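Practice problem: predict the structure.
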Amino acid sequence: MSTPAHFKSLIAPLRAAMAEFSEVGARAALGGVLAEDAQVRLSHPLGDMTGAELYDHAYAPLFEAMPDLERRDLIVVAGSDGDGGNWVGCMGHYMGTFAAPFLDIPPTGHLAHMRYHEFYRIERDMIIEMQAIWDLPELMMQAGAWPMVPSLGREFCVPSPMTQDGLSEHDPKTSQASHDLVINMLTNLSRHPSEGGQEIMQADKFWHPRMNWYGPAGVGTARGLAGFRNWHQIPFLNALPDRKGGTTGTLQSHFFADGNYVAVTGWPNMQMTVTGDGWLGIAPAGQKITMKSLDFWRIEGDRIRENWVLVDLLDVYAQLGVDVFARLREFNKARVPGRIPFPIGAA
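Answer:
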């Protein structure tokens, strides 16, 4: 079988096991669907690993930090990309009591949430590739430990789709139209600034006037086209005018549609040069960088109403020579139990 429903059914036991997380249940569910030699690509600093290493390298530390960990999926979509690859994409939150440090992020003792976008490529009914961004900056912010610049957009716990149908089966007849709308939007977006000003993007043609753009922590959420332009697009395009991605450039993106939903993954799928000021407080020094962006769009009528975007911002900082975790440790070492080094006779 090669239907979206079939692909989603393959990961249903994994989703169920992680909804009521336990080591035994999660290990068994991963072993049932994730190939041991699968290529697993997680956001910085977790990095690349095999399927056999995933639990010990990523989930075990998260479960230790949140002993009552639970997975809450809000969107699950599936489909085939233009190269014949079969994908399932999930968006949701890992939630639990933040009781112990995770990757040196200090615990709060309170309920915490960390958004994830996770994509699984399936062959012969097994996951052979996983690409995932965990929004670690979101967890840092809840801990009062984010050491970088403030977000321009609004930070909050990103919601499920307005239509509450993110986990439903979707009408396959609308999938191609949804796919084409997003591709056309991205194609027009890429025409600016080389071919013209803001008008060349024809944003009003593609975006609903009450659209929500749910960006990664560190960028934040924006409401409507005015909010999107003010809090994300203008600073982004000013700083990175030569960006390529989605439908342009040499990097590969995998688009697939499931009814009114469209998803894209790529590792990385954007490339650009930091040539202007205004984005993330990064000094424009002509640095060439790439970005990993895992996105979901929801179409309403003939326009995009909601867009969930996660970018591996920690990897962007790392490419620029900024160790966000080193800065986090410096800012927060007084909160860690034990003595703070203070050399005798220091000036």
